[in-house]
Fold:
Amino acid sequence: MIILDNSVLSAFTRLKLLPSLKLLFPSVIISKEILDEYSLQWQKENIPNWINILQSNENIILKKIPLSLSSADLSVIRLALEHDKPIASDDRPLRIYAEKLGILITGSLGLLKLLYKKRIIENLDEYITYLNSLQEDVYISDELMKWALEE
Amino acid sequence: MSEKINIKLPIDLLELTGLSFERLEERSLLIWVLELYSEGKITLSKAANLVQMKVDKFLLEFQKRHLKHVGGPNTVQEVQKDFDTIQNLTKDQ
Structure:
């Protein structure tokens, strides 16, 4: 099971790779608060019914919350704490705060490489196209691009 | 949004942009927030909240300007850790 924030949710939606995540994880979760931040039309067109939408537990008290995070970001953190599951996020402030709380983190680049390693993304050309397109959502430095292309 | 501050801009901007005072105010805020998001100082959700937009609409504004979003892992060590986390998680898949 993995919890997506809206940076990874929107990147994988734009890349049309959301269905591929179903092949990696038995369960993919987003919070109700994250979903509500998208327009109704976007929700209708992009959220498949196998994605679980959960309400976070507001009773989980969080301390030293950075101003850089929204209440929807905090709902992602609360879900991760409640279910003891990792978060996929490309937003640095959220990643840093989650790590401080001991939550496991991953991101779009790691997910993309795993999809390629498992040959869900079938060939190198296709993989490179996805990597280049991901740059619209999150900057990939030369060093990280080199890592992504290592076998 | 909670408390607000006033900032001063040259009056020429009204004529140069052709925007009304309110639209100029909105546009100025959007530019600031796009920059903060681009630099990775705020999350996507926080950025959209600050300009009172839906996330998908904010991303359209961001992507049409071809801005770079500094986010995700910063180093090879960090991205490898990201990868190992999900590889362990999906071992049996």
In short: Chain A has a mean pLDDT of 96. The longest strand of chain A covers residues 28-31. Chain A has nine helices and five strands.
